[in-house]
Amino acid sequence: MNLWAPLDQENIRNPFPMYATLRREAPVYKSQTGEWIISRYADVKTILKDPRFRSGNKLEWINRGITYFKSKDQDLSAIASAITSFLLLINPPEHTRIRKLITSVWNDREVDQTILENVDSLLNIKSEDNTFDIVEDFARPLPNMTICKIMGISMEHYQHLTTLSNNLVKILNLYNSFKDLVRIDSAARDFISFFRELLDIKKQRPDNDLISKLIVANASEREPLSDDALISVFIFLFIAGQETTIGLVSTSLLTLSKYPSQLNTLAGNPELMPNAIDELLRYDGPVHLLGRIASENIELGGHCIKQNDTVTLCLASANRDSRHFENADILDITRQPNRHLAFGSGIHFCLGDWLAKRQGALAIQRFLEVYPTYSIVDHTLQWNDNLSIRTLKHLSCRV
């Protein structure tokens, strides 16, 4: 019996029964496709913090694909150039170097005003019949509007960059078809061209935005990043929080609608919002799966994971593990402590966790203030065919 079917439509709609079966029957499971599926909290956290497991093989997979398609007269090299400095995909020492550079300048957490201005502008748009698509009208545009302002990108470029981002972010999917790669490569080329031009402008006229700060800090490094590597960092920062924010905001509002008592408690006690965000991330956070590669033979749960074996970590399963969380399948916005793994753990712990949580909190809180009696009207929910980052296609509500 195959316990791992991430592309099965029933599991796309609701993967939690599959996760529960894995935790119960085969917490360290060798799938039909050869990778190891890890589903319990303790094992997932152990691997995330173990340096013998390096970040996933996406870069290696892409480079092999580029070489193969080059022999077929298909040039997909822009993809590798665009993602070469993505923190999610690289390992020390390069990971340490780039993360240190970013954290040295991205320490300004006073972004509330920017987020709230964006939230309010989106919530002021409403159809004549008082329906509102939480995904398309609210959650999807919000993260790119925010990161544009943080990075110092003019809003006149917002729509174009959003289109590119929607295509390029698919490189983080568990699986990609050739058609996907062609679209991703086209987006990568346009992204590189845009940020190369912006890099030249900011070098000449630096401002107080994140891109300018990175350029100035990089120039003072003993071994500064190349322009190509710096452009890849810009692209990563632009797209990194897109799908995850869409998922956090929309899935959280869906979840709260299913727990009216929790929703009422939160609406009446806004001081609970930080705690509620952590619980919503634990209960059904956007990042469900992460990949790792074993750098040597490693024993885990009575199994030998061999050198270069691929390991898929089920973060969303770990966050529902009753061995670690009491009443794990129940939403409890007062849950404490709540050491969930929604942002990972170890050296690859999400760099923008503070921004994701703040943006999610402000967006959800203001939504509940403006539309306290919203009701979901989608009877059949449609999820995107990607279990790595799980997001809804649409979420219509009546306001």
Shape: globular
- Could you say how many structural domains there are in total? 1
* Total DSSP E strands: 10
Label the structural class. Answer: alpha+beta
CATH architecture: Orthogonal Bundle
CATH H-level homologous superfamily name? Cytochrome P450
SSE pattern: HHEEHEHHHHEHHHHHHHHHEEEEHHEE
Structure notes:
- This protein has 399 residues and is α+β, with helices and mostly antiparallel strands.
- It has one domain: Cytochrome p450, CATH 1.10.630.10.
- Helices cover 52% and strands 9% of the residues.
- It is built from 18 helices and ten strands.
- The strands form three sheets. A five-stranded mixed β-sheet has the order 1-2-8-5-3, sandwiched between helices.
- Strand 1 and strand 2 form a beta hairpin.
- Helix 7 packs antiparallel against helix 9, helix 10 packs across helix 11 and helix 11 packs across helix 13.
- The mean pLDDT is 89.
In short:
By secondary structure, the protein is α+β, with helices and mostly antiparallel strands.
List keywords for this structure.
about 50% helix; Cytochrome p450; globular; single chain; five-stranded mixed β-sheet; alpha+beta; three-stranded antiparallel β-sheet; about 400 residues
